[in-house]
């Protein structure tokens, strides 16, 4: 058991340093627990959650196939133009677009789509792009909290439980929406001086021609309705007795069928490093479970809280937020899931435990620049565009945002579940 | 027949930029040379990168332009952008040079050059011996030599 714990902790520490690619770290960790026979290969294969991988792969494929149509660029430009160059309206429209896209696509994809257009809009408006980029990163993590498919921690939780798409929305969307409104308003107040736009610059945003951002209208007509249909199907997956992964993979398969793009190109768009990262993590967490380390952590938590439900729910939420902020919310959630499974099992299968974990892990993704994949990716794009976002500069905004979000989540958990 | 019957006469002398040279000076050398790119050497005189047309445009245009997959919806001239980015002329070449360069040793062959121009988007291939640049071969010279041979053999 000690070896599994040491390897997992070491992997988390190395991932947190960002010195070595996280996928390499997870795969090395998985190889080591297998080579040292901390976990047998059969058990390792069983530990891999194919529902999570299928859901991720299906959604990645659909985004990859629809992206070249230009539909997301169109959305981002329209969002910018709706504001007519007024600072508050720019913040609201870009933040809303980012949050809604993040709820139904993954956060990483959303920021990758939004960041270049935001730079372009800021350039046209002659304002500093970084406040807008930081707002987009933060609201993408908040928006992603709202649905089963919005954020990797939620996808992981869905893979481990029978919770449905609608249950995720019913339980998480209200608090995500509240956090979104309060955080966006707060960020606007913080940045409003940097977002002043000269009247002549406002006109420049309106010169952009969103219609010309649609690169392939025929492909858009073929593929985007399938994406929308798939999202709608998620709402009915429980009634139809279909797992979320099946919904996503069916949507992706139909899209590949009707798309005119080469299948090799579409399949190459799957973020294989992310999928292999998950595989490595599942094997490492499987080793923690096999060796009884998870039982010990769960028993330890239960003894500290003395089985007090309030203490456990809030403890899970805040531990997940702090852990996700320091490490990365994906491995942290992966390790917490079996612990939470035991705690909630001891409480008669109380689902509130899962919502506490989801809120902590997703909101915690805003604490630092390394806390969520979307943050890292957006910072990388900003650096390549010549405007790097410093770790401390992000922390100064991300940490208060996380604190506010978590205080709201604490109130929500208290009112709704305690 | 020599393994580089085609490319041997194509080897050109080229001014080697220093990584610390300002972009403005590098662009003047680039224009003066008539080549699409020039090799760059570090302070130790060893070859360390390439600065050419693409790198110059990267220095000049706003960084996000490269990240846009398509810009047909931007009905603007580049005047504003050029004004905003004019400060790049004082920045060192090392900030923008391409360090993922492809170079060949003096014993390169025609086939090796053809493979490089087929698989990589490079405009010149420096010939490097012991870290020093002996000369460069441009893609357009290589194409012209190939095309001349092709026409002549028909």
Keywords:
A: 418 residues; mainly alpha; 21 helices; B: alpha+beta; two-stranded antiparallel ribbon; 6 helices; 5 strands; 35% helix
Question: Could you walk me through the main structural features you see in this protein, from its secondary elements to its overall organization?
Answer:
Chain A is mainly α. Chain A has one domain. Chain A contains 21 helices and no strands. Chain A has helices at 2-17, 22-35, 41-47, 50-66, 71-82, 87-104, 107-125, 129-144, 152-160, 165-191, 199-207, 217-235, 244-258, 263-268, 272-290, 293-305, 309-326, 329-346, 352-364, 373-384, 391-417. The longest helix of chain A is centred in the middle third of the chain and has 27 residues, at 165-191. Helices cover 35% and strands 17% of the residues of chain B. Chain B is built from 6 helices and 5 strands. In chain B, the strands form 2 sheets. Chain B has a 3-stranded mixed sheet with strand order 1-2-3. Classes of the chains: A mainly alpha (418), B alpha+beta (154). The A-B interface holds A 67-68, 70, 73, 77, 115-117, 119-120, 123-124, 129, 204, 207-213, 215, 381, 384-387 and B 62-64, 66-70, 72-76, 81, 84.
Kindly report the average pLDDT value of chain B. Answer: 89
- The parts of chain A where pLDDT drops under 50 for at least 5 residues are none
Integer-rounded radius of gyration of chain B: 17 Å
Radius of gyration of chain A, whole Å? 21 Å
Main sheet properties of chain A = none
State the order of secondary-structure elements of chain A, H for helix, E for strand: HHHHHHHHHHHHHHHHHHHHH
Topology of chain B as a string of helices (H) and strands (E): EHEEHHHHEEH
Spatial sequence of strands, sheet with the most strands of chain B: 1-2-3
Q: How many individual domains of chain A?
A: 1
Note the main sheet of chain B. 3 strands, mixed
Mean pLDDT of chain A: 91
Please give the share of residues in helix of chain A.
over 70%
């Amino acid at each position: 058991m000690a070896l599994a714990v040491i390897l997992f902790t070491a992997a988390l520490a190395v991932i947190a340093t960002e010195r070595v690619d996280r996928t390499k770290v997870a795969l090395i960790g998985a190889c080591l627990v297998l080579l040292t026979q901390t976990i047998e290969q059969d058990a390792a294969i069983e530990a891999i959650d194919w529902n999570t991988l299928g859901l991720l792969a299906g959604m990645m494929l659909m985004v990859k196939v629809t992206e070249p149509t230009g539909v997301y660029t169109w959305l981002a430009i329209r969002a910018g133009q709706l504001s007519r160059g007024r600072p508050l309206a720019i913040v609201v429209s870009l933040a809303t677009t980012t949050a809604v896209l993040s709820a139904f696509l993954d956060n990483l994809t959303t920021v990758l789509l939004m960041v270049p257009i935001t730079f372009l809009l800021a350039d046209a408006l002659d304002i500093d792009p970084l406040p807008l980029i930081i707002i987009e990163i933060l609201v993408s993590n908040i928006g992603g909290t709202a649905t089963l498919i919005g954020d990797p921690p939620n996808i992981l939780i869905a893979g481990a439980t029978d919770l449905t798409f609608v249950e995720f929305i019913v339980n998480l969307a209200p608090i995500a929406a509240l956090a979104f409104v309060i955080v966006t308003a707060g960020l606007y107040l913080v940045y409003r001086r940097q977002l002043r736009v000269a009247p002549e610059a406002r006109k420049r945003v309106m010169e952009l021609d969103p219609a010309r951002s649609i690169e392939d209208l025929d492909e858009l007509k073929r593929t985007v309705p399938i994406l929308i249909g798939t999202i709608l199907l998620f709402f009915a997956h429980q009634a139809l007795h279909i797992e979320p992964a099946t919904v996503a993979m069916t949507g992706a398969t139909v899209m590949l069928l009707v798309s005119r793009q080469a299948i090799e190109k579409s399949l190459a768009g799957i973020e294989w490093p992310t999928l292999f990262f998950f595989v490595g993590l599942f094997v490492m967490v499987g080793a923690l479970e096999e060796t009884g380390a998870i039982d010990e952590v769960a028993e330890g938590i239960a003894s500290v809280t003395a089985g007090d439900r309030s203490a456990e729910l809030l403890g899970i939420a805040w531990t997940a937020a702090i852990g996700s902020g320091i490490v990365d919310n994906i491995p942290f959630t992966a390790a917490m899931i079996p612990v939470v499974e035991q705690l909630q099992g001891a409480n008669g299968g109380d689902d509130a435990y899962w919502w506490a974990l989801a809120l902590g892990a997703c909101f915690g993704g805003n604490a630092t620049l390394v806390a969520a994949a979307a943050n890292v990716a957006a910072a990388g794009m900003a650096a390549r565009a010549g405007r790097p976002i410093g770790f401390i500069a992000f922390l100064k905004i991300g940490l208060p945002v996380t604190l506010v979000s978590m205080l709201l989540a604490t109130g929500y958990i208290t009112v709704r579940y305690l | 027949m020599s393994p580089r019957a085609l490319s041997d006469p194509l080897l050109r002398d080229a001014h080697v930029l220093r990584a610390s040279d300002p972009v403005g000076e590098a662009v003047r050398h680039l224009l003066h040379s008539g080549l699409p790119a020039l090799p760059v050497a570090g302070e130790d005189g060893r070859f360390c990168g390439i600065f050419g047309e693409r790198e110059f445009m990267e220095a000049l245009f706003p960084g996000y332009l490269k990240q846009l997959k398509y810009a047909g919806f931007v009905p603007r001239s580049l005047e504003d952008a050029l004004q905003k980015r004019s400060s790049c002329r004082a920045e060192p070449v090392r900030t923008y040079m391409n360090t993922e360069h492809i170079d060949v040793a003096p014993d390169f062959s025609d086939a090796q050059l053809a493979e490089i121009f087929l698989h990589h988007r490079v405009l010149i291939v420096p010939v490097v011996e012991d870290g020093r640049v002996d000369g460069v071969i441009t893609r357009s010279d290589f194409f012209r030599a190939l095309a001349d041979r092709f026409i002549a053999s028909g």
